[in-house]
Each structure stands twice: as C-alpha cells, then as structure tokens.
Design a protein that fits this description.
The chain is α/β, with parallel strands linked by helices. About 35% of the residues lie in helices and about 15% in strands.
C-alpha cells in the first residue's frame, strides 16, 4: 500500500502497465503527493519465460522486464513527487485470465467518496486495459468515489486524435469500449486537456524514465514524443454520477 497516508490522496490513477499513467494521465500525476499511481500488472512472472515485446525492449526474460520497468516507474514518480503501488500481477503474456478479484481487493481500501479514481477506457482492446477498467468498476461500486475514464495512449491517438472511428484499426476504435461505459459517461462530450508547457516538460521527462519502452513505441508511433505531438493532449470522460452499485459490462474472469 502507499507510503503516504492514503487519507491525504485526492486522485488515484489506476494504470494497467508501468507506463500507461505517464502516457495518458500526466496532468493528474503532476499534482505530486496528492496523487497515487497504482500499476495493476506490476509483478514478475513466476517462470523464466519471455515475451516478444519484452525482448524488443531489451529484456532477456519476463522477471528482468518486471524488475527493470518497476525501477523505471519509481524514477518517473520521483520526478513528479507522487507515490506508486505495484500489484504483484504479471502482464497478460505471462498468465491466463485477468485476476479481477485480486485487483478489486487491492483497490477497495483506497476508495472513498472524496477521491477521484482514474481508469482506462480500454481503447486498444488489450486484456490488461479492459480488465483493469472492469476491476475498477467492481471495486468502486457503492463507494461514492468519483470515476473518470482516460483515453488509453498511444492506442487512442495512433490514427490521429481527430480520426473518424471507422478509419482506426478495429482494435483501436473508441466506440466499442465507450459503449461499455455509456450508462456512466456522456460518450459524445469528453473533457479534452491540452497540457501547458510545464506539465508537458514533466510528462516528457517521466516518459524518458520509461526508456525501455520508447524504442518499441516509436515503431508504430514515430515522433510521438515531439514537443507539439499527440502527447500534448489528454482526453477524459467523467462519470456523470458517483460510483453506483453496478456490475462491469465487459467483465474479465476473476
């Protein structure tokens, strides 16, 4: 659990992987000590196998990737001044079903009516992103916390922020994932945040801490780190009501 008194936290960013918070919600993480970044897939796999992405990023094994990326995340957090929590859950390539029950149990003690909880929409259709979203929905039910859903970067801007959904690759389309949240958010009225220079400077510095990921991300998203590039924008959908008693609409196995 977080090092600081969790009663002082106003914002909890729930990130599927180590770099997703910095990529998508830097405007909130820039608040420093009042924010907490909780990474769901923050654990090492039990075996010594490897994944193609981890190999591309320079890691010889899954455990090496988990250790190295956790260190990168702590370095990024030190720049912004926020605390981090890494749940002991490995990435999707190293497990079978998403552990919804374990994630829900870890989140539950942190959720209060005066806390804003930031969760991924699930754009990109990655099982860890969709599973994280659904676990947040389950954990938040009945707590009264304020839910906000963020556009998952880089999937969300891969074809351009303003692209028509039909022109995006099927997995990166926004509409199917937003449809799962239509009972909570106004799908057609996102909150668009353009980062000021100070926050953009911090965001770039945080992402440079996640150095292992940059080469791989640049293959499909060249120049995404440009000063006036797509990272300058962040997109959110606030829930129109406080977290009600509800069931996730696109659940993952517990």
């Amino acid at each position: 659990m977080p090092e600081q008194d969790h009663l002082t936290m106003t914002d909890i960013v729930v990130s599927p992987h180590f770099d997703d918070g910095a990529l998508s919600v830097a405007s909130t993480l820039s608040k420093g000590p009042s924010a907490l970044l909780l990474t769901v897939c923050g654990g090492a796999p039990t075996g010594a196998g490897d994944d193609e992405w981890d190999r591309l990023c320079g890691f010889e094994s899954g455990p090496a990737a988990a250790s190295g990326r956790a260190a990168e995340d702590r370095a990024a957090a030190a720049l912004a001044g926020h605390d981090v929590v890494h749940l002991p859950i490995p990435d999707a390539p190293y497990r079978t079903a998403f552990p919804t029950a374990a994630v829900t149990a870890a989140l539950a003690p942190l959720l209060r009516p005066d806390v804003r909880v930031w969760a991924p929409v699930g754009i990109g259709s990655h099982p860890d992103h969709v599973g994280t979203r659904d676990a947040v929905l389950t954990a938040a039910a009945g707590t009264g916390c304020q839910l906000l859903f963020y556009a998952d970067c880089p999937y969300a801007f891969g074809s351009g922020w303003d692209a028509a959904d039909r022109d995006r690759p099927p997995a990166d389309r926004w509409e199917p994932q937003l449809a799962a949240l239509a009972h909570l958010v106004d799908v057609d009225c996102p909150r668009i945040t353009r980062l000021d220079d100070s926050t953009m400077r911090l965001k770039i510095a945080m992402l440079r801490c996640h150095a292992s990921q940059l080469a791989g991300l640049s293959v499909d998203h060249p120049h995404f780190m440009a000063w006036e590039g797509p990272l300058r924008q962040e997109v959110f959908w606030p829930a129109s009501v406080l977290a009600p008693s509800l069931e996730p609409t696109l659940g993952s196995s517990a």
